[in-house]
Amino acid sequence: xxxxxxxxxxxxxxxxxxxxxxxxxxxxxxxxxxxxxxxxxxxxxxxxxxxxxxxxxxxxxxxxxxxxxxxxxxxxxxxxxxxxxxxxxxxxxxxxxxxxxxxxxxxxxxxxxxxxxxxxxxxxxxxxxxxxxxxxxxxxxxxxxxxxxxxxxxxxxxxxxxxxxxxxxxxxxxxxxxxxxxxxxx
Amino acid sequence: xxxxxxxxxxxxxxxxxxxxxxxxxxxxxxxxxxxxxxxxxxxxxxxxxxxxxxxxxxxxxxxxxxxxxxxxxxxxxxxxxxxxxxxxxxxxxxxxxxxxxxxxxxxxxxxxxxxxxxxxxxxxxxxxxxxxxxxxxxxxxxxxxxxxxxxxxxxxxx
Lengths: 186, 158
What we know:
Chain A is mostly helical.
């Protein structure tokens, strides 16, 4: 099959799952930096981030549960990368302390979205702008929960702030973020 | 925005963050059962959360990462789809191990044959001694000590 830059993510994924490594290369060109960016943030280590990035793209070859009608590839990859990254973090941390369940996986369900068609840099700009409008403490607890995989209780303990306050900051932060990005998310 | 809507968003955000209490979760499940259209709203909260990585600073992966990924994908393909109709040459250490094992088995086999032969000879000898003992145990048997005479010198050859 001839590969074209105009091929959709779903078409590329099918080609990669059929063993076409050129399709994998094109998928990597589209999303490799973004996956690595998140992997690096979660794992805080270039070598581990590269390993996780490779694992995510290799997983795509066996993972048939991506459905472009239910969500976009970037969201799918972010969920997968975060989930695998937090799993690694938890395995590391389990050696030192017991953990309560904290991650919450989900399947993206949205239809094709306007943000999918914007460039990665533009999309990054939208999200950065939105985050800057949150209260600093809201931003902090959202980042601790999302990137560090910490539970609300663990965040409360780390910051020495009541659990109820942490929940309020994180939930209200997400509600505000949802409002700020509503034109770009569904 | 109504207080009811605020409460609903609070539950939806909590679900997306994975921090609902069991009471809150039960309440949200009830709401979603009665208003299935809210599933879409829940998904939007989840997707909003998944946008957070976009706010991170760009990171440049180490040079050559693309090539390493493609190389790994090739290794993966070979590992999962071995070629048919060709036999791989055994590795040298495996050949040496096979040779050593073969030699050991052969030596053990020869050793076993020798042992079996020795045992058969011992059993035959034992049987002979048993027969001798049985004969000597007969009531009519007498033990006579025999003494050899001194041999006369042979006459000179004429």
